[in-house]
Specification:
two-stranded parallel ribbon; 8 helices; alpha/beta; about 30% helix; about 20% strand
Length: about 300
């Protein structure tokens, strides 16, 4: 994603800014809330990184796709892939990318979208050492962390279905962009949004990105706050109720990420992101910079929202 996205006027038509709030039934209040296993989530993070950098068109990318699909199919038989073609780098190397979509309780009309990106950046162009800037990013926090949180949530949904439907989507080709060119980022979510029919729109969405940092600081992202404020407040208030202090109720950073493409087609989607991560787009974005506790912080908040 690119944090250089600055707005001088609203990029979204006013008619899409009507907030759809999911009506939680009183019966949901008494549903047992399953426990988020942060250690299991962290093992998912390590497994993804063990494949190597998940750059589209590479063997680690294919291996990780198989792992994600196989893992999700343990929890639902409604798993599909949405393929699309891209080019990687200035040389225009072609590659096939895959959005991975898992549907839970597909007959439920009221639905929530949970999403993350699973690819990694081909170039560590923010690395302090110029010799490393042509190397791929390992993507422990930037990619694997959000996916890991949602894989664990998929397991919990399978064990204890909530009162409404959930769609988990792993976007590909998020991290291939050029700084300052918003259209070159978040290609998987753009593809997903363009193919989504109006009848398939969820009540709202939550994007999880860069949440693994052991020194976690989750501020409210500006686009999320501006265009889906009530959902942002719901999430951060829930974190406050749980005593999770890494969710900081202040707006900071203006990030062009996968949620922007969803907002532009009328889906109220927010971004939970730690953009103060010092290893962003460097070769040091490795599992030792992340922690199970950080994954657990985000996972616990999302689970509470799903079941309470």
């Amino acid at each position: 994603m690119d944090n250089t996205f600055k707005k001088t006027k609203s990029p979204f038509p006013i008619f899409i800014l009507i907030l759809l709030i999911l009506p939680f039934s009183s019966s949901c209040q008494n549903q047992p809330i399953p426990k988020f296993d942060q250690e299991l989530a962290f093992r998912h993070l390590e497994t993804q990184c063990n494949f190597g950098a998940r750059v589209p068109g590479t063997e680690p990318h294919q291996q990780c796709r198989q792992y994600l699909v196989q893992t999700l199919r343990k929890y639902t038989n409604q798993v599909t892939t949405q393929s699309f073609q891209i080019t990687v780098g200035s040389g225009g190397h072609p590659a096939t990318c895959y959005n991975i979509i898992a549907n839970f309780l597909p007959k439920k009309k009221q639905r929530i979208l949970l999403c993350a990106h699973w690819d990694t950046r081909p170039w560590a162009d923010q690395d302090p050492n110029p010799a490393n800037r042509s190397k791929p990013v390992p993507g422990a926090s930037d990619g694997a962390s959000g996916v890991s949180v949602l894989l664990e949530i998929a397991r919990l949904i399978h064990l204890s279905p909530p009162k409404y439907g959930v769609d988990i989507v792993f976007f590909d080709a998020e991290d291939l962009g050029t700084y300052g060119n918003n259209e070159s980022w978040a290609l998987g979510s753009k593809e997903f949004a363009q193919r989504l029919s109006r009848r398939d729109h969820p009540e709202f969405g939550i994007l999880v990105d860069l949440v693994g940092d052991a020194d976690q600081q989750l501020y409210m992202e500006n686009n999320s706050y501006q265009y889906a404020r009530k959902i942002v407040e719901r999430v951060w208030n829930k974190a406050g109720d749980l005593g999770i202090v890494t969710f900081i109720p202040e707006v900071k950073h203006d990030v062009y990420d996968d949620h922007i493409n969803l907002l532009q087609v009328g889906i109220q989607c927010i971004n939970i992101i730690d953009f103060d991560y010092p290893y962003w787009h460097t070769i040091e974005d490795t599992p030792d910079k992340c922690s199970p506790q950080s994954l657990g912080n985000v996972g616990r908040v999302l689970v509470e929202l799903l079941y309470h």
